[in-house]
C-alpha cells in the first residue's frame, strides 16, 4: 500500500528560523542596519574612530585692529623725530631745458627768391573752380547755334527747290470704290447643316484601362497599427510576469498505481 503522506524523506513544512529575503518585497533586512561611517547614527556594536570638527571664529577677535607688519617703525626714527644723519638717494635724470632752436641751412630755398629779387614774366596757374561760379546762370557757348546753310530753311543763303514723297490719296485713284459694293471676302461660308439634313456626329471619348499590376497598392508603411484606438477602446498591452520564488511549494502529482 502506498503511503498517504505526500512528503518525501524527513523534511516537513516548518517556520523559517531566520528572515528569508524572498519573503520580503523590500530590498532586504540588511538595508535597515545602522551605518558604520560618520558620527550620526553609528552602529554601537562596531568600533568608532575619533572625529573632530572645525569650530567657528569667536567674535572677540574681530574687534582688534592693531597695525600689522607693514606699519613697522623705521630704525632712524626716535622719540624726538628723525635723526640728523644726512641721507642720499638715486633719482632719475632731469630733462634738458628747452633752448632756442633757430632755422638751419636746410630751411632756406634761395632758388625760389628769383621772383622776389629779379624781375620775371607773369605766370598763371590752374586753380580749382570756386563755389561762386555754380550759382551763375549765364548761357555758355554751347547754348548758341548758327543758322543752317543747307536745306529749305536757310536764312543767309538761297536754297534750291526740294521735293518730298507724300502719301497716296484715295480720291481720284484707280482703286477708288465709287459704287461702294461689297467684295467676295465680305461674305462668310454658311454651314450646310442650316439648310440641309444634318448628318450624325460623333466624339472621341477617353480610353478605359483594365486594372493591372501597375496600379499603386498600399505597402507595409501605409498602415498604422498603433492607431487601433479608432476601432477599439484601448490598444493591446503586454507586461512581464512575476518571478516565482524558489521557496514556492512545487506541484506534486500523486500516482495511484
TrEMBL record:
Pfam families: SHIPPO-rpt. InterPro entries: CIMAP (IPR051291), SHIPPO-rpt (IPR010736). Residues 1-21, 32-51, 59-88, 128-203 are annotated as: Disordered. One of its GO terms (cellular component) is cytoskeleton. It comes from the Eukaryota. This is Tripartite motif containing 35-30. The gene is cimap1b.
Amino acid at each position: 500500500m502506498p503511503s498517504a503522506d505526500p512528503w518525501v524523506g524527513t523534511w516537513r513544512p516548518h517556520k523559517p528560523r531566520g528572515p528569508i529575503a524572498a519573503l520580503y518585497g523590500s530590498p532586504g533586512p540588511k538595508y535597515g542596519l545602522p551605518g558604520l561611517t560618520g558620527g550620526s547614527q553609528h552602529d554601537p556594536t562596531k568600533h568608532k574612530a575619533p572625529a573632530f570638527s572645525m569650530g567657528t571664529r569667536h567674535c572677540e577677535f574681530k574687534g582688534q585692529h592693531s597695525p600689522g607688519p607693514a606699519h613697522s617703525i623705521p630704525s632712524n626714527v626716535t622719540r624726538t623725530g628723525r635723526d640728523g644723519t644726512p641721507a642720499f638717494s638715486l633719482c632719475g635724470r632731469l630733462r634738458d631745458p628747452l633752448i632756442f632752436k633757430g632755422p638751419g641751412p636746410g630751411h632756406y630755398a634761395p632758388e625760389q627768391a628769383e621772383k622776389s629779387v629779379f624781375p620775371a614774366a607773369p605766370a598763371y596757374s590752374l586753380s580749382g573752380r570756386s563755389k561762386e561760379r555754380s550759382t551763375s546762370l549765364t548761357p555758355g557757348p554751347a547754348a548758341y547755334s548758327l543758322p543752317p546753310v543747307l536745306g529749305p530753311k536757310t536764312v543767309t543763303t538761297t536754297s534750291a527747290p526740294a521735293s518730298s514723297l507724300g502719301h497716296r490719296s484715295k480720291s481720284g485713284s484707280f482703286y477708288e470704290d465709287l459704287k461702294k459694293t461689297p467684295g467676295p471676302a465680305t461674305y462668310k461660308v454658311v454651314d450646310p447643316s442650316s439648310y440641309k439634313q444634318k448628318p450624325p456626329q460623333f466624339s472621341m471619348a477617353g480610353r478605359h484601362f483594365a486594372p493591372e499590376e501597375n496600379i499603386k497598392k498600399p505597402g507595409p508603411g501605409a498602415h498604422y497599427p498603433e492607431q487601433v484606438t479608432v476601432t477599439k477602446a484601448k490598444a493591446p498591452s503586454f507586461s512581464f510576469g512575476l518571478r516565482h520564488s524558489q521557496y514556492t511549494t512545487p506541484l506534486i502529482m500523486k500516482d495511484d498505481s
